[in-house]
Amino acid sequence: MALPFQVWVQIIINGLSLGGLYVLIALGLTLILSIMGILQLAHGEVYMLGAYAVYYLAVKMGINVYAAILFSMFLMAGFGMLMERFLFRRCEDKVLSPIIISTGLTLILQAGAVIVFGLYERSIPRLSEGSFELMGVFVPKDRMVAMVISACMAYMLYLFLKRTKLGLGMVASAQNPQAAQLKGIDPHKMSLLAMAIGSGFAAAGGAMAGSILMLTPFMGTLPLVKGLAIIVLGGMGSLSGAVFGGILIGLIDGIVPVLFGPLTASLAPLVIVIIILLIRPQGLFGHE
Predict the structure, then answer these.
(1) Over the stretch 65-91, which tens digit does the pLDDT of each residue have?
(2) What is the 3-state secondary structure (H, E, C) of 154-222?
């Protein structure tokens, strides 16, 4: 299908904005997996709760949307720390228990959201009103803002992990937990920090998704699936793989529906992940 240049610009920008949201949730999942060794399957519900927190702060209480997003990130970071301390820490070094706990937590949070928030859709105020012209295309400002915020957060996480004492401790715990513990690094403290950062990133992603798209109690399910596909595609525990995989999946979700329709678009990311894993089982950025 031959598309005008302006359409290509529009769908690529849409894909990059979606990719930015996917990167945030994938970075959180990757960080938690690397430090704690678990798949936090309730991560999508943290994404959803973060979005609803922003809705009530910005819409019901009249707080500035950016301040509401920041407050929501801290709120969900605290919620993540509570989950780590009272749920996941009790089943460390086990494989099945964290999966059962996070699956049960997913169902509880979804049901609770339906009861408290209802089933009808809501929306968060846009991150920025209006649009600007880019190569003959009018681009919504809120999508560009979402892309910039996602890129800045990913870069800040990189600087934290590479330039700070706490960040280096987290990297050491991820690479060799036993050696890190012998060096005096508290694994529980690292797990607590990983869950806090991961949950805060999920809240930011959910808030921006609620601004660009809509809020529902089940809005976290699809991003969770995308996040899991991304961390497998990029390589388990690889932050650079999470960034690259998130952008790739976002571009697929932006471009493929226009070219081939929504049904093909829903299958394309999973097909690509399967093909890449057949060629490179450790993922694009994973290690043997």
Answers:
(1) 999 999 999 999 999 999 999 999 888
(2) HHHHHHHHHHCHHHHHHHHHHHCHHHHHHCCCCHHHHHHHHHHHHHHHHHHHHHHHHHHCCECCCCCHH
Q: Where are any strands of DSSP class E within 28-179?
A: 131-134, 137-140
Mean pLDDT of the chain: 90
Domains of the chain and any CATH numbers: 5-279 (1.10.3470)
Which of helix, strand or coil describes residue 131? strand
Torsion of CA 43, 49, 54, 56, to 10 degrees: 180
> Is 80 exceeded by the pLDDT of residue 135?
no
Q: Which has the closest alpha carbon to 66: 155, 130, 149?
A: 149
Work out the number of other CB atoms within 10 angstroms of the CB of residue 16: 19
Task: Tell me if the pTM is above 0.70.
Answer: yes
The whole-angstrom separation of Cα 158 and Cα 34 is 15
- Confidence (pLDDT) at 169: 93
Cβ atoms of residues 269 and 249 within 8 Å: yes
Other residues' Cβ atoms within 10 Å of the Cβ of residue 121: 11
Residue 285 has pLDDT above 90, yes or no: no
Residues comprising the chain, all counted: 288
**What pLDDT does 276 receive?**
84
The amino acid that residue 9 corresponds to is V
DSSP state of 285: S
In sequence order, the 6+-apart residues with CB closer than 8 A to the CB of 93 are none
Q: Which residue has the higher pLDDT, 132 or 17?
A: 17
C-alpha 204/C-alpha 202 separation (Å) is: 5
Cα–Cα distance measured from residue 232 to residue 274, given in angstroms and rounded to the nearest whole number: 10
